[in-house]
């Protein structure tokens, strides 16, 4: 069994980051794992797209670079194109001009919106071409099964198990959703089943606040609280996914300290 303090430290770091004002990341100077997905999500927030759309963009980005080498293509261009493509897939469209200006300004802090000149049209053409490249590379298979729907179902069931008093005493749902969205920063999200990811995000939230599910026995794999939901999730796999989620916050700390 992993040390519970290791799990709880994730939540503490997450809360500390929210209270501390972080200086904007200079993406052109930082070369750390996870920096481009951070760029993608920062742009997604500025574009005011839905969380599921930004998650789709991240999955598209990770799937693309699973097929090709990151040294062969401009990762920031692919991230911008993934945002534009995800908006179409999730019926949450954004104007390509907004994508261009937001991504360009995020890479070049303090610059004004691009004029309709050569640079603008060059970037526009690059995003459109990258969109076609992504689709071809993924063999036009852009269907994505998200863990979000599983998480919602598990949370509703778990809420009735724990009772309203315990459930409302700590932000379990909010923390689990945050862990899930943050996990999209890592390409390791592609290695696991969506249902398993949802369980582990919820499990990490429960561990963070020291909540014990009634009648569950963590010493017995057959009596884990999540067994009725996913019978094929072993304890080893469970902790492997949680470690992958925790790794995201370690990478975040490294980027922030740069």
UniProtKB/TrEMBL annotation:
It holds the Pfam family Cyclin_N. One of its GO terms (molecular function) is cyclin-dependent protein serine/threonine kinase regulator activity. Residues 38-136 form the Cyclin-like domain. One of its GO terms (biological process) is regulation of transcription by RNA polymerase II. Keywords: Cyclin. InterPro entries: Cyclin-like_dom, Cyclin-like_sf, Cyclin-Q_first_cyclin_box, Cyclin-Q_second_cyclin_box, Cyclin/Ssn8, Cyclin_N. This is Cyclin-Q.
């Amino acid at each position: 069994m992993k040390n519970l303090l290791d799990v709880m430290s994730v939540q503490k770091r997450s809360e500390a980051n929210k209270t501390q004002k972080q200086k904007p990341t200079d993406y052109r100077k930082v070369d750390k794992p996870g920096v481009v997905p951070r760029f993608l999500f920062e742009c997604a927030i500025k574009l005011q797209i839905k969380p599921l759309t930004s998650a789709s963009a991240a999955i598209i980005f990770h799937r693309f670079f699973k097929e090709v080498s990151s040294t062969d293509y401009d990762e920031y261009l692919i991230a911008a194109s993934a945002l534009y493509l995800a908006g179409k897939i999730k019926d949450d469209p954004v104007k390509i001009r907004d994508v261009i200006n937001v991504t360009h300004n995020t890479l070049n802090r303090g610059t004004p919106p691009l004029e309709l000149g050569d640079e603008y049209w060059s970037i526009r053409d690059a995003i459109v071409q990258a969109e076609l490249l992504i689709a071809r590379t993924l063999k036009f298979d852009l269907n994505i099964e998200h863990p979000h729907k599983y998480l919602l179902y598990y949370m509703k069931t778990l809420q009735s198990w724990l009772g309203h008093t315990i459930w409302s005493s700590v932000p379990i749902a909010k923390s689990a959703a945050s862990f899930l969205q943050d996990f999209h920063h890592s390409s390791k999200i592609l290695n696991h089943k969506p249902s398993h990811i949802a369980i582990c995000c919820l499990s990490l939230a429960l561990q963070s606040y020291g909540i014990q599910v009634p009648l569950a026995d963590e010493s017995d794999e057959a009596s884990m609280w999540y067994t009725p939901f996913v019978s094929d999730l072993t304890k080893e796999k469970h902790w492997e996914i949680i470690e992958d989620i925790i790794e995201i916050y370690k990478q975040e700390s490294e980027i922030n300290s740069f």
